[in-house]
Amino acid sequence: MKEKTEVEWRKILSNDAWSINKLPTELRGALYLSYSQLPQNLKQCFLYCALYPEQWMMHRDVLVRLWIAESFIEKQENQPMEDTAEEYYYELIARNILLPDPNYFDQVECKMQDLLRQLAYHLSKEECFLGDPQSLEGETTSKLRRVSVVTDKGSVVLPILGSQQFRVRTLINFCDKSLKVVDLTFKRLPYARVLDLSGLSVQKIPHYIGSLIHLRLLDLSGTSIICLPDSIGSLKNLQVLNLQGCDALHCLPLGITQLCNLRHFGLDRTPITKVPNGIGNLKFLNDIEGFLVGGGSDNGTMQDGWKLEELDPLLQLRQLYMIKLERAAPCSTNSMLIDKKYLKLLHLRCTGRTDETYSEQDVSNIEKIF
Prior knowledge:
Blueprint: H1 6-13, H2 30-36, H3 40-48, E1 58-59, H4 60-69, H5 81-94, E2 98-100, E3 109-112, H6 114-123, E4 128-131, E5 146-149, E6 155-156, E7 170-173, E8 180-181, H7 184-187, E9 194-196, E10 217-219, E11 240-242, E12 264-266, E13 275-276, E14 287-292, E15 302-303, E16 319-323, E17 345-348, H8 360-369
Parallel strand pairs: 4-5, 5-7, 6-8, 7-9, 9-10, 10-11, 11-12, 12-14, 14-16, 16-17
Antiparallel strand pairs: 1-3, 2-3, 13-15
Helix pairs in contact: 3-5, 4-5
Pfam family, one: LRR_14
Domain Disease resistance R13L4/SHOC-2-like LRR: 168-328
Keywords: Plant defense, Repeat
């Protein structure tokens, strides 16, 4: 950060933040000043971190997707919103608001100092709640917008609010896999933008999910789902779909190719064997974790993986993680990645073999693909 002039230091000295007395004593003075000096967009990002439990390590890429889904990120000309969001992230680190984990050279993980987290939670307490949502029964929740589930109970139960309508836009969780989610949960969240059910005991996604027209982020990673309903194609505002580590999921529905605003698609560690043709139609897709390369089985609408040519229209790609590369046929064009000017990370993986080694022909084919 640049050095401040004497005039700027005098402005800080005369800032009203020093005289705020509606805060707990330990949150006043310099601590509140560090918040008041933030630009408005960074204030929103800072307050959002109050949804995380104390001392929880936050990952940069997860925060970036959440901030974008919440419309905290200003669009910049000729720059992906993910790059802008990363700038916000590193600015919060530069201001000592977020503390990076020293084990990562690129500061990809961080946490928030306890007092700053208390300040964030205090300032956002009307809109944010962290704990067991069932404890909100009988409380006034008209201003509540974000719920972070932390509970020892066996299931997620949203409160019965009588005549009040549950206007929560964000539901994220920090629970273990034994926690069950009842189907009714989806119907109780008609305004949801962010729905994070990662790691929970979810086996079925109801057809009703297609009615959540405001949904921008759906995280089902690590769940026990065996299929997705075709109605998922109705989620025209969906930007993030996480399906990593879903051990029982083998087929993707045709509706996936209708997610016209999808930006991040996570499939890594999920044993997908059937995918719909047409991933190249998702023009805003810029991050694919687990692009399954096809082996040639194709019935017109469903196939055993995607052809390399389907990457051609995806000009926004920033990160690409390809799996089963050994199945790829040589591309009909050599420009598959040449025009991907935003590409930062390219991960190419072949399937490990324990029973036999790759033949010379297989190796030659893989070299041609490279």
